[in-house]
């Protein structure tokens, strides 16, 4: 699956949750990916759901782990939830449904 490109903090970045990062997200949030996504889509999320989804997807998109943590500290923590909620929701939507116009299973 192609990474999602979205604005975050100070510019456009790529976001991608690989299978290994989904496992890490599940561990960090104490729930399966389906439960995490359901909470986010229904707006019944925890702050950790939002932070870890963005942080791990940034790492999956190529950002260094330390930089991803710094970006969360600067652009997510202690700010209104709406922007970070929208980004996390887009990331999880991308995991579930893929990129628009992307064929299932990488078929052209």
Structure characterization notes:
The chain has one domain. The chain is built from 5 helices and 2 strands. The chain has helices at 19-29, 33-41, 47-60, 65-75, 81-97, and strands at 4-8, 11-15. α1 runs antiparallel to α3, α3 runs antiparallel to α4 (65-75) and α3 crosses α5. The mean pLDDT is 91.
Short structural summary:
This protein is mainly alpha-helical and 108 residues long. It has helices at residues 19-29, 33-41, 47-60, 65-75, 81-97; strands at 4-8, 11-15. The protein has one domain.
Mean pLDDT: 91
The total of beta strands comes to 2
How do the strands of the widest beta sheet line up side by side? Answer: 1-2
Rg, Å, rounded: 13 Å
H/E element string?
A: EEHHHHH
Helix content: 55-70%
Count the DSSP helices: 5
**Major sheet attributes:** 2 strands, antiparallel
The best one-word shape is globular
- Quaternary form: single chain
The figure for the number of domains is 1
What portion of the residues fall into strands of 2 or more residues? 5-15%
Poorly predicted sequence stretches spanning 5 or more consecutive residues: none
N→C terminal distance: 12 Å
Decide which structural class fits the backbone.
mainly alpha
Indicate the topology.
Layout: E1 4-8, E2 11-15, H1 19-29, H2 33-41, H3 47-60, H4 65-75, H5 81-97
Antiparallel strand pairs: 1-2
Keywords:
108 residues; two-stranded antiparallel sheet; mainly alpha; 5 helices; 9% strand
């Amino acid at each position: 699956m192609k990474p999602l490109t979205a604005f975050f903090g100070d510019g456009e970045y790529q976001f991608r949750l690989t299978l290994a990062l989904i496992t890490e997200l599940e561990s960090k949030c104490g729930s399966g990916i389906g439960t995490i996504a359901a909470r986010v889509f229904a707006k019944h999320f925890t702050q950790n759901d939002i932070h870890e989804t963005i942080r791990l997807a940034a790492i999956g998109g190529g950002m260094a782990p330390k930089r991803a943590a710094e970006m969360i500290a600067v652009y997510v923590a202690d700010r209104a939830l709406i922007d970070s909620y929208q980004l996390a929701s887009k990331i999880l939507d991308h995991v579930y449904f893929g990129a628009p116009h992307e064929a299932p299973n990488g078929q052209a």
